[in-house]
Amino acid sequence: MRFRRLVLGTAVTGLLLGSAPPVLAASGAPTLPGTATRDCAPISPSSPEDAHHDDSCLALTVTLADLPEVGGETEVTVQVRTTAARDALDLELLLPTHLTWVRAPEGFDVTTAASTVPVEGGEVHRARGHHTVTAGTPTTLTGRVRAVAEGPAEVRATATAEGATDTASGSSFLTVDDADSTEGITVRAVDAVTATNAPATRSSLAWKHKPAASPTAPDRPGRGQACVKGSWNYVEHTGYTRVSANAGVSVLDADPNGEDELLATGVTDEYGRYQLCFDNKDPGDRTQDVFVRLATENVQWKIQANRTKAAYRFDTAVSKNVRNGRTVDFGATQPAAPELMRAVQAFDSLNSAWNFTPGDCWDDRDTTCRQGAVNWEPDSTTCCYADLQENASYIGGSTPDTPIVTLHEFGHSLMDDVYDDWWPSTPNCSSHTLHKVSSPGCAWTEGWPTYYGGLILQDPTFRWGDGRVLDYENATWGTAVPGRVWENGDAVEGRVAGALHDLSDVSTHESGDTYAEDPRGSLWNTFLDHRSSSFREFWDQRAADGHDVGPAALAALHYNTIDYR
């Protein structure tokens, strides 16, 4: 049996095909048209974890000589290689506020700019320069940095071939400490919360709020009861404070021996608020010592650590000696650790998906719901793919900043759930790109998750973490992008994504597209009721279900170069 694991990250795309047992089946987000059009060979990864997003002729690594404590210094080494005969590169090296440049690589200009990304601490120190690299001769650049404050730090470098979309990037992570800095970004099993008074809003208003679980605890105190209330928020990469809806909430009685007693559970509401009541009896001292635990988990989905598979949890302070009839207000809170804001942001992206998805489970035909899972860590470079045996997706440390990638990867897990662990044959997915012919199976299993993510976000544009964008809805016959012309037909994943979007959007501004239907109606029902191995098969199943496959619907497909007329 074939299996595949496609990983998205910083430089090149990798794919494994084999006849081993179906341990892994996966896919990454599509590559940008125009990539690797130069006269050079894409660089293959040495392992799946080292594989990258684009079919790139560049590769880049970042290493630190030491792990400096506050006030200490270390050398930063960036190595770049290419398979092109000669590459003129634009290079950028970024330091968060916890680090500063003592000496940038020779010829690089250093500037400091404000940053809204919480983990970067308010500003970044950017070094930019140019360098020429030749095939077979890796280029090594060195600089020196000083640690100036405690906290998580990512040293990131990006190389871009001048006049091309070919890029590569790499990172090195550390946690700076006053006495003992460590490699990677350290995360505690349970972190703390901090108070916030910033106005908090929903990240998306595209779909009406849908509770992930029914209340199991009263929200008003009865006889012999007490209550807690508060709200749960996060700061997204844009700097805006957002509410975290449907987050898991637990009320616990703090035990001096560490055996905390669970008193009540629930989820936050549409505005991130919670109010839970509980029986207020403690045989030991007659009153409860209460705290609240927020989590990136509910019964329908969770964001979990790659290795432990545990959701991220955050505890409030303890309110002691809570008496009957009292409601303890823990106020508006958010993660105290800025490096964990992205965990809550990824959770909120799946909340938007839940709001869109019809029914009581991700697969509304299920009687027992499968919990969706996304693996994430703040320093993870294991990105991006879906492990269909594990029933979970993997995303990288900064991926939550690009929700389309988070949702694309989760879309693979959702398709696997709907198809009850059956997966279509998907040849020629190495490497798959939005604009090029792969195979009908690959175009379907990649195009559908892209459509799903864009539909949830109400934005049919693929957005990469480095700022590149690609509009797949308005690509039609002869559409060109830098260095390429879109290829045609239902074996092109971007055409499948565009066709699905044009069937279900309310915009008919494209010539020949006058069709629109509720995406949670016949399109979704055909998806749930069949296992489709290609868009053509899906279309035939749609017809057999009695749904509209008439001239207007066919015209929407034809605009996307899928001609079934």
Helix-strand blueprint:
Elements: E1 58-64, E2 73-82, E3 86-96, E4 99-103, E5 109-114, E6 123-134, E7 139-147, E8 151-161, E9 167-176, E10 182-183, E11 190-195, E12 225-235, E13 241-243, E14 248-253, E15 261-267, E16 273-279, E17 288-295, E18 301-304, E19 313-315, E20 319-322, E21 327-335, H1 341-356, E22 372-375, E23 385-387, E24 392-394, H2 403-418, H3 440-457, E25 461-463, E26 469-471, E27 480-481, E28 484-485, H4 493-504, H5 522-529, H6 535-544, H7 551-559
Parallel strand pairs: 11-19, 12-21, 18-22, 22-24
Antiparallel strand pairs: 1-2, 2-7, 3-6, 3-8, 4-7, 5-6, 8-9, 9-10, 11-21, 12-13, 12-16, 14-15, 14-17, 17-19, 17-20, 23-24, 25-26, 27-28
Helix pairs in contact: 1-2, 2-3, 3-4, 4-7
Cα separation of the termini? 35 Å
By DSSP, the count of extended strands is 28
Q: What structural class do you assign from the helix and strand content? A: alpha+beta
Which stretches are poorly predicted, pLDDT < 50 over at least 5 residues?
A: 1-28, 32-36, 45-54
- Give the fraction of residues assigned to helices: 10-25%
Task: Estimate the mean pLDDT confidence.
Answer: 88
β-strand percent reads 25-35%
Please give the radius of gyration in angstroms. Answer: 25 Å
What is the overall number of helices?
7
Describe the global form: flat
Report the major sheet. Answer: 10 strands, mixed
